[in-house]
Write a structure and sequence with these properties.
It comes from Brevibacterium mcbrellneri ATCC 49030. Pfam families: SBP_bac_5. This is ABC transporter, substrate-binding protein, family 5. GO terms for molecular function: peptide transmembrane transporter activity. By secondary structure, the chain is α+β, with helices and mostly antiparallel strands. It has 2 domains: 104 residues, D-Maltodextrin-Binding Protein, domain 2 (3-Layer(aba) Sandwich), CATH 3.40.190; 214 residues, Dipeptide-binding Protein, domain 3 (Roll). Helices cover 33% and strands 19% of the residues. It is built from 13 helices and 10 strands. The strands form 2 sheets. Strands 4, 5, 6, 7, 8, 9 and 10 form a 7-stranded mixed β-sheet that branches. Strands 1-2-3 form a 3-stranded antiparallel β-sheet, with no helix packed on it. A hairpin with a 3-residue loop joins strand 1 and strand 2. Helix 6 packs antiparallel against helix 8. The longest helix is centred in the last third of the chain and has 18 residues. The protein is globular, with a radius of gyration of 21 Å. The relative contact order is 0.18.
Length: 352
């Protein structure tokens, strides 16, 4: 998170690890139980003075390693809310039939997804190689196959709904063109061996989308592309943090604040906390710094230049803009959704 105006107690500064296990907050809920990789329990904060008060006494967040199991539990009424629908349920809109009228929501999301190229790996040093791989991905075909056409092919590094949105700023480098991709790959020195694309298997659809992307690259670029599976996001992130990735890997971001800067700074500024691919461009860093003191018109022009730079450098290639799929049991009310397309947990409640 990159949150502002979030006060922290003295205990946070004394011992980060201990605070992480037993945090002190000032919101409508308070943490009362944390069982690692099992569940988190929040209870209503009776001392909360804000307007958006909790409508339930307790929330229990169950952790799953298999998204399909979470979905099945909601359909069966064992769990009340889910925001991860497996691909086999998305296909043919089966999930909407399974849940029934009044128990699901499909809406735009601020989630952006793509694939990162590790800049520290010699295979990806030449930007033409990265551009070639990007041009070999048929985003529309992947989106249609995996999400029933509900997601939108990504052609920018910041999604719709976060203004100013600049559609298709990536240009031809985010549209499939097999011949142009092969030519670029040759100009960049080619690609030897197998191209791997890593994904975490504990996220809905990650396996299916990576397989579809590899199929597209195999067909359009003529190189061997193979999905590389990690059981959990944490395990994949450990490898990414250690700079031990030897191939591409799935990336994603959801807005921390309602500005393209939330996306354009986190992944791409030199040495930024989430810039795991080792991308560095002094000109890009300069634009990211100068934009903070610009007016809206100047900012929009700078956002455009920043994304045009990313199109040339291609440290991360866009894949799609996400869609929010929510399902709930017949025991609870429909939740409201925040501007950043997450459940507003102060609005969840039992039916009367």
């Amino acid at each position: 998170m990159h949150s502002t105006y979030m006060p922290l107690p003295e205990s946070f500064f004394k011992d980060h690890e201990a605070y992480g296990k037993k945090p002190i907050g000032n919101g409508p809920f308070k943490l009362t139980e944390y069982k690692q990789e099992q569940q988190i329990v929040l209870e209503k904060n009776a001392d909360y003075q804000g307007e958006a008060k909790a409508h339930v006494d307790k929330l229990t967040f169950k952790m799953y390693t298999e998204p399909g199991a979470a979905y099945a539990d909601v359909v069966a009424g064992n769990v009340d809310y889910v925001d991860a629908i497996p691909p086999d349920a998305v296909a043919g809109k089966k999930w909407q039939t399974d849940l029934g009228e009044g128990r699901w929501q499909l809406s735009p999301s601020t989630l952006w997804n793509g694939y990162s190229f590790p800049q520290y790996d010699e295979k990806f040093k030449d930007p033409k190689v990265r551009q070639a791989i990007s041009m070999a991905i048929d985003r529309q075909a992947v989106t249609d196959a995996v999400t029933n056409g509900e997601n939108t092919p990504g052609t920018a590094w910041s999604p719709p709904g976060i203004e100013p949105f600049q559609d298709d700023i990536c240009g031809d480098k985010c549209h499939v063109d097999a011949e142009a991709a092969k030519k670029l790959l040759e100009e960049g020195g080619g690609f030897k061996g197998t191209l791997t694309i890593a994904f975490n298997n504990d996220g809905p659809g990650n396996k299916e989308v990576t397989e579809a992307v590899c199929t597209s690259i195999n067909e359009n670029l003529g190189i061997d592309c193979q999905p590389q599976s990690f059981p959990t996001f944490a395990e994949m992130l450990d490898k990414i943090d250690a700079k031990e990735m030897t191939g591409m890997y799935r990336s994603g971001w959801q807005a921390d604040f309602p500005s393209p800067l939330s996306y354009l700074t986190a992944y791409y500024i030199t040495n930024a906390g989430s810039n795991k691919s080792d991308y560095s461009n002094p000109e890009y860093d300069k634009m990211a710094s100068e934009i903070l003191s610009q007016d809206e018109a100047e900012q929009e022009a700078t956002f455009k230049k920043m994304q045009e730079t990313l199109a040339e450098d291609m440290p991360v290639t866009p894949l799609w803009y996400g869609t929010l799929r929510l399902g709930w049991s017949d025991k609870v009310v429909a939740p409201q959704v925040t501007w950043k397309s997450t459940i507003d947990f102060t609005t969840v409640g039992l039916k009367k």
